[in-house]
Design brief:
The complex is a heterodimer of chains A (about 230) and B (about 800). Chain A has seven helices and ten strands. With about 230 residues, chain A is an alpha/beta fold. In chain A, β9 and β10 form a beta hairpin. The longest helix of chain A has 16 residues. Chain B has about 800 residues and is α+β, with helices and mostly antiparallel strands. In chain B, the strands form two sheets. In chain B, strands 2-3-8-5-7-6 form a six-stranded mixed beta barrel. Classes of the chains: A alpha/beta (about 230), B alpha+beta (about 800).
């Protein structure tokens, strides 16, 4: 049996609130293998985004353990977590979150710059190759504000792949796209998984489940169903 | 090639040009303020130490009878002395393009071999020849004389002689002629004789061998010289020992520079606060991007380095702008200060260490100011950063009471609430504006206090002019002549002497003047601070002024002191202490002093006219001249009290003026602070403004909301500045009193100053908010609503 890429062991996440603590995830255990394309669905407030934050190392569980690519993420220091995040995961956001003052290519080069994964002379070539792979090489020297939503999201995916992460995490990546572009984006993520990239995607898109290798449904912070394709 | 993150840094700076300009301006103003004072200090310090030291200033000056070569040879042979020189100082008058002016003529035993108080020839001939005159540099502009002019010079009532102006020379040991309203000049002994003036040399200037001696040690050497002079049968009437190595005005200028330096540093700190405000706001606007960068792997240190680098670059740019401006102002101000000290600053470069210090402070100030907000911002959690919704408002105390004020119009209420939304930022803006206000009001109060003090000084001398006779005469005869002159209301003949305190340990103090009006004088009514004024029944009663008392604390009221007057020791009782100004002074009855110094005769008359006004005073002085001359009492010089007052005020108000200029600098910093606060407020509320415009707010309503918010902050700063100005007035008044003149502390802010400051803050607010208001008005609704 292959070593799982992601392991969540009895993870609970509680947020303090004015009306008392709010449990976003309750005792969740999960295992995701390498090259899986996992789709996480659920209603608003079900804990999808919290799950993704814990996997991305941008939040810590209140209890339990999060392991990604063999690293106990929740045990890392802030500094180590930042370094790990730059190397091990790529994140795609719903609102693209490209830096507005950098061109597409520069946005893609930025993670390499922070993590120093590629020699500086090779970074642009790598960025161009990723943009070409995602079909937006001709937008390389344009600012995000001049691109369409679909183009921006492709650039965002290219940026997420910049440091060749073991896991690609996508938070509602189609939430801000029209249906045609959204479909194209889902197919792109599916193809990445087929090429060996582990992908975990939070979405409302029903069509996504068709492309996924596994669908996990969350409700009130708990896993209520798991469906394998 | 720059990496993407540094390109982002540069583009952000360029994208937010207005904010960048504000930060640069804020830092630059601070550096200009502190840098200009630092430049001035470095230049003035160099001339006042190096130049003054090089002039070999007299360690002590003894006043005695005629000094001849034999005495000079004996004095120069004393082991403790490096050199000695004999001099004569004569008061005369010169007729220039500016009219008749008081002159002080100096002659020495050998101008060609200038041994003590070395002069610095600047133009024309040196030394002066018989029949010619060399003008001291600081008197040239005041007297409007030029090289080659024929200068009509008169001693007393003797015939005026035309002396050719043959040269210009500088004497760094003299207070500037333009400031003292005296034409200083150098002539030979033969020229003095030609003028009919006494030509024998009576001042012995000595230079000690060990230049590092303190004042007490120099006093001991001077006492030895005095003994030697007295052993030759001459009387020594005065021994003056200045503070070694210090120019006569150095303490005042040093204190002035120190005070201004303190305000320069304050301006720098205030600009630092402004930088904190701006960098915090910049980070607040960049929170989402910080979150994104952290999400893709940026470490807090990398984020912090990016923003600190921005601060460093802005600091360097500000320094590049400010350092040359500070140098120009510093050089100008140093020249001005040097003029006060009678030095020439030209040829002196600002030391590179001083420039480097400014560069270091300019570059590091924004980095230091930005460190806390940057570190805080770079440590924010990714989720928190990505969820940042911009400015929020929680109804705290301000919100609660504002909600209850139902009668206030909604837009005005909105402005009031807006002002309190970023409380920390508002507090910092208040600090900068109200500190500027407090300094301004403090300077206004100081100015009022100075005027009150000068008023008081002249109120104690209710006469309009004083006349010095060429020779002493019987007081009754002189008074009779003066009282017979048309326009004279009151007149008193005063005696005078110079006295030296002999302390209990045998040492002697500096010489000080004793003014001796009649015991029943009505033309001298000083404010008694301790004891009483002298009475006709007193014997050897002395009244001292506060300045003398602070120099010689043993002369307290009730004490018995020994004074050396005209070489003779006499016992006195100090019966009172009075406040009469910044110079050392004591008072005794004419009836006691006149017999001691002039066989009962006097050489000064003070006169009060029956008609007020400068023209009437001037005419009366002319009539007195001719009437006294006709009666056989020729006068040596006459001075109007209005002239004397303007000399004193020129000296004193200059300080208040400088402090006022420092407050202007702080007002600029405060104005920049308000402008930045309002720009950021508009930027942060672009969406709100869009909403307001979408629901029908007109342009003028939007402008009013922004302007009123600015006015609320400005008016609050005005209110805060009022109580803050009180300790500032006390600090400034005390600092001024220590070095110049004790002034009353005015605790109630001057009404005019308060109103002017109100107008200034309102004006600053309107100007500072104009651009933010214009921007708020111009943002299209759709863009405003889409703004993140």
């Amino acid at each position: 049996m292959p070593t799982p890429m992601i392991v969540l062991d009895r993870v609970t996440k509680t947020y303090p609130g004015t009306a008392g603590p709010f449990t976003a995830l309750a005792d969740v255990s999960l295992s995701i293998s390498s090259a899986e394309f996992v789709v996480v669905v659920g209603q608003s407030g079900s804990g999808k985004s919290t799950l993704l934050s814990l996997l991305a190392g941008i939040d810590r569980p209140s209890s339990g353990a999060v392991q990604v690519g063999g690293t106990r993420v929740d045990a890392l220091s802030e500094r180590a977590m930042s370094e790990w995040r730059g190397m091990a995961v790529g994140i795609v956001f719903q609102f693209f979150q490209l830096l507005p003052t950098l061109t597409s290519a520069e946005n893609v080069m930025l993670p390499m710059d922070f993590a120093r994964t590629w020699p500086s002379r090779e970074r642009r070539d790598r960025a161009m190759s990723l943009l070409a792979r995602l079909g937006v090489a001709d937008q390389a020297d344009k600012l995000p504000s001049t691109l369409s939503g679909g183009q921006q999201q492709r650039v965002a995916v290219a940026r997420a792949l910049a440091n060749a992460p073991s896991v690609l995490l996508a938070d509602e990546p189609t939430g801000n796209l029209d249906s045609k572009t959204a479909q194209s984006m889902l197919e792109l993520l599916g193809s990445l998984a087929q090429e060996g990239q582990t992908v975990v995607m939070v979405t409302h898109e029903r069509d996504a489940q068709r492309l996924a290798s596994r669908t996990i449904q969350l409700a009130d912070g708990r896993v209520v169903s798991e469906t394998h394709a | 090639m720059l990496s993407p993150r540094w390109r982002k840094v540069l583009r952000d700076v360029w994208l937010h040009k207005a904010r960048t300009v504000l930060v640069v301006a804020a830092i630059a103003v601070g550096i200009v303020g502190a840098g200009a004072v630092l430049d001035t200090w470095s230049l003035v310090r160099r001339v006042t130490t190096a130049e003054f030291d090089a002039s070999l200033p007299a360690s002590a000056t003894l006043l005695t009878d005629s000094i001849d070569q034999a005495l000079l040879v004996r004095v120069r042979a004393m082991p403790a002395l490096a050199d000695a020189q004999a001099r004569r100082t004569v008061t005369a008058s010169v007729r220039t393009r500016n009219g008749s002016q008081a002159a002080m003529l100096f002659a020495t035993d050998d101008f060609a071999r200038n041994r003590v108080g070395v002069l610095k020839p600047e133009q024309g001939e040196w030394p002066p020849r018989d029949g010619s005159i060399v003008i001291e540099s600081s008197s040239v502009e005041y007297s409007a004389v030029q090289l080659g002019d024929s200068l009509s010079t008169q001693f007393g009532d003797r015939d005026a002689a035309a002396l050719r102006v043959s040269g210009i020379t500088r004497d760094v040991g003299l207070a500037p002629g333009w400031m003292e309203h005296i034409v200083y000049a150098f002539v030979t002994q033969a020229t003095l004789r030609q003028l009919g003036a006494p030509a024998s040399l009576n001042e012995l200037q000595i230079l000690v061998k060990n230049r590092s001696m303190n004042r007490e040690a120099v006093r001991r050497v001077a006492a030895d010289v005095k003994s030697l002079v007295e052993s030759t049968g001459r009387a020594v009437s005065d021994v003056a020992v200045p503070e070694p190595g210090r120019h006569v005005h150095a303490a005042q200028i040093g204190s002035l520079l120190f005070t201004q330096g303190a305000f320069g540093v304050l301006a720098l700190l205030l600009s630092g606060i402004l930088v904190v405000n701006l960098i915090s706001a910049m980070l607040a606007g960049q929170l989402r991007e910080i979150g994104i960068m952290k999400a893709i792997g940026a470490r807090p240190a990398q984020i912090a380095a990016m923003y600190l680098a921005v601060a460093l670059v802005l600091g360097l740019v500000a320094s590049a702008i400010a350092i040359p401006i500070a140098a120009v102002i510093g050089r100008w101000y140093a020249q001005f200060t040097a003029d006060l000290l009678n030095f020439d600053i030209s040829g002196f470069a600002i030391p590179s260490s001083v420039i480097l210090l400014q560069l270091g402070v300019g570059a590091l100030l924004p980095v230091v100011a930005a460190t806390i907000p940057v570190v805080k911002g770079s440590r924010i959690g990714v989720n928190d950063a990505l969820r940042d919704l911009g400015i929020s408002f929680t109804a705290g105390t301000s919100g609660a009471w504002l909600s209850k004020t139902g009668s206030i119009a909604r837009p005005f209420l909105l402005s009031l609430r807006n002002a309190f939304r970023r409380r920390q930022r508002m507090a910092l803006t208040l600090v900068t504006l109200s500190t500027g206000g407090a300094v301004y009001l403090g300077a206004v109060n100081l100015r009022a206090a100075i005027v009150a003090s000068v008023d008081m000084l002249f109120a104690v001398q209710p006469f309009d002019m004083s006349v010095r006779l060429a020779e002493p005469h019987a007081p009754d005869s002189v008074e009779a002549v003066v009282r017979g002159v048309a326009g004279v209301a009151r007149a008193e003949a005063w005696a005078g002497a110079r006295a030296i305190l002999r302390r209990n340990d045998g040492s002697v103090g500096d010489a000080f003047p004793i003014a001796a009006p009649p015991a029943a004088t009505t033309l001298l009514v000083p404010r008694i601070v301790d004891g009483r004024w002298m009475l006709p029944s007193d014997t050897n009663a002395l009244v001292v002024n506060r300045r003398l008392l602070s120099e010689e604390p043993t002369m307290m009221v009730g004490s018995r002191v020994t004074l050396l007057i005209a070489g003779m020791a006499s016992e006195w009782t100090v019966v009172g202490a009075v406040e009469t100004g910044p110079s050392l002074a004591a008072y005794a009855a004419r009836e006691t002093i006149a017999p001691m110094v002039g066989s009962g005769r006097v050489s000064a008359v003070v006169v009060s006219g029956s008609v007020n006004g400068a023209a009437a005073d001037f005419e009366l002085l002319q009539r007195l001249r001719s009437s006294l001359a006709d009666a056989g009492f020729p006068i040596q010089s006459g001075q109007l009290m209005t002239q004397q007052r303007s000399v004193i005020e020129d000296h004193l108000l200059m300080v208040a003026g400088f402090l006022g200029s420092m407050s202007l600098l702080m007002i600029v910093v405060g104005g920049l602070g308000l402008a930045s606060t309002m720009s950021l407020a508009v930027l942060e509320r672009t969406r709100e403004i869009g909403v307001m415009r979408a629901i029908g707010a007109r342009h003028r309503s939007i402008v009013a909301i922004v302007q009123i918010e600015g006015l609320v902050i400005a008016l609050l700063s005005w209110l805060v500045a009022l109580p803050l100005s009180l300790p500032m007035s006390v600090i400034l008044g005390r600092a001024f009193g220590r070095v110049m003149l004790e002034v009353p502390v005015i605790l109630v802010p001057e009404t005019s100053g308060v109103l002017v400051w109100l107008a200034v803050v309102v004006g600053v607010s309107v100007v500072a908010c104009a651009w933010p208001a214009f921007r708020a008005m111009r943002v299209p609704v759709a863009r405003a609503l889409a703004y993140e």
